[in-house]
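ok posting inputs for the adenosine-5'-triphosphate job
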Amino acid sequence: MELTVNNLSYAYGEQRVLRELSFHVGDGEFVSILGPSGCGKSTLLNVLAGILSPQGGEVRIDKVPVSGIDGRLAYMPQNDLLLPWKTILDNVCLYGEIHHRKKEMREQARVQMKRFGLGGCEDKYPTELSGGMRQRAAFLRTTLCEAGIYLLDEPFGALDVITRGEMQDWLKDLCTKLKKTLLLVTHDTDEAIYLSDRILILGAPGAGILKEITVKAENRTREWLYEQGGLRAEIHRIIKGENT
Ligand SMILES: Nc1ncnc2c1ncn2[C@@H]1O[C@H](COP(=O)(O)OP(=O)(O)OP(=O)(O)O)[C@@H](O)[C@H]1O
Ligand SMILES: [Mg+2]
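and the output
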């Protein structure tokens, strides 16, 4: 599925955060968004997910305009939003429950929870887990959604460096195998380089896209990533406003 954003605008009162923003994510493409804190990344994802209504412009999926919450999109917000009264397993299987596939999803979820280091947490409640564990549960819940387009807002921000690397590899494999369309918000430049086909760099609120970078790689490995010093430096210069 492809996602098209045309002249999208959003303001909180007088503060214009998104100003006529346009971009496109192709079918099966992995696009990351980088930008300074407060520039409007989460606002953008909230608008795309139908939680906030745009004050101008439109969003299309496969050329059809989207209005409100759309089942073709799966969204992992920046705060994990696990339901405190449900166990971790029930939280992870939330979409299975909504779509009447609970039993089948519970089996799948139990297997994945072990892989995600959440084995033994099935019957615990969100408050009993660490921030990183809750984030992995929320990530698993999102990936178990049968959507065509995934919107992820800093999904690995609370994880230690080893677990973060494992989750990135898992997401990379998932995208390669299932050819999902993905829009990832991150503060981690290496994460964006490692995973993305394209990186969009946003400027200050309302400034829009400062630069679009296509990442070309035959075979993405950690070794390949370490060699991307030039690209990393270029991205940092643009974010700091030194190259615009
Ligand atoms: N509910 C709200 N009411 C008023 N202003 C808001 C609200 N949510 C966000 N803002 C403001 O809009 C701007 C963009 O916020 P947003 O959360 O989209 O930034 P962000 O790029 O996701 O930042 P971060 O990288 O820190 O997560 C900020 O100045 C923020 O203070
Ligand atoms: Mg944010």
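notes: Strands lie at 3-12, 15-25, 30-34, 56-61, 64-65, 73-76, 149-153, 181-185, 198-202, 209-214. The longest strand covers residues 15-25.
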